[in-house]
Design a protein that fits this description.
About 45% of the residues lie in helices and about 5% in strands. With about 180 residues, it is mostly helical. The strands form three sheets. Strands 1-2 form a two-stranded antiparallel sheet. A two-stranded parallel ribbon has the order 3-4. Strand 1 and strand 2 form a beta hairpin. The chain is globular and about 45 Å long. Keywords: Metal-binding. One of its GO terms (molecular function) is metal ion binding. This is DDE Tnp4 domain-containing protein. Pfam families: DDE_Tnp_4.
Length: about 180
């Protein structure tokens, strides 16, 4: 799962150990709220000072539901971005049988090409046509799944819940602070 891979990665170690060179916590614009910069995860990830995950459970109060909704909107944007990359750069659908440094270059190249094509004035209609990414129906709030999901095998989209409920008090405090802000 993504959470398991994250936990064993260099990035995961650095986030858990608070040694990743992230900016210092900062005030959220137009508020007195100070919050650390965070990565956005789902239920598969642990709650850490710099990694936000939703509140667990289904019987949540309104503030927690709103927090989870806002966090899921941010996560959906990230999922759509990865979905576009994999759907458009089909090499990412398979194991990259190459040295790690070449794999890094390959992935970075896909990202650079993605950004280049997105900035081209005529590309939007064919590179990311209407309905290609997930969107929210403005009338009822229902999430309409994007076409990219049909182009990417389900096993690349599934994330199993494998995280622990253990977290430190400061992580919960930061999440509660963001909950109050949202």
């Amino acid at each position: 799962s993504d959470g398991g891979i994250f936990g064993r990665s260099k990035l995961g170690y650095q986030v858990k150990s608070n040694v990743l060179p992230l900016p210092a916590p900062n005030r959220i614009p137009s508020t007195p709220v100070v919050s650390p910069y965070v990565f956005v995860g789902d239920e598969a990830f642990p709650l850490l000072n710099n990694l936000m995950r939703p509140y667990p459970g289904i019987h949540l109060d309104d503030e927690k539901r709103i927090f989870n909704y806002r966090l899921s909107r941010a996560r959906r944007t990230i999922e759509n971005t990865f979905g576009i990359l994999v759907a458009r750069f089909r090499i990412l659908l398979q194991t990259l049988y190459m040295q790690p440094e070449y794999a890094n270059d390959c992935i970075k190249s896909c990202i650079v090409l993605h950004n280049y094509v997105r900035q081209h004035p005529r590309s939007e209609s064919y590179y990311i046509p209407a309905g290609f990414v997930d969107y929210e129906n403005p009338e009822n709030g229902e999430i309409i799944r994007g076409i990219w999901r049909a182009l990417v095998p389900a096993d690349l989209r599934q994330v199993a819940k494998q995280s622990t409920n253990n977290y430190c008090a400061s992580s919960a405090h930061y999440r509660d602070t963001l909950k109050q802000y949202f």
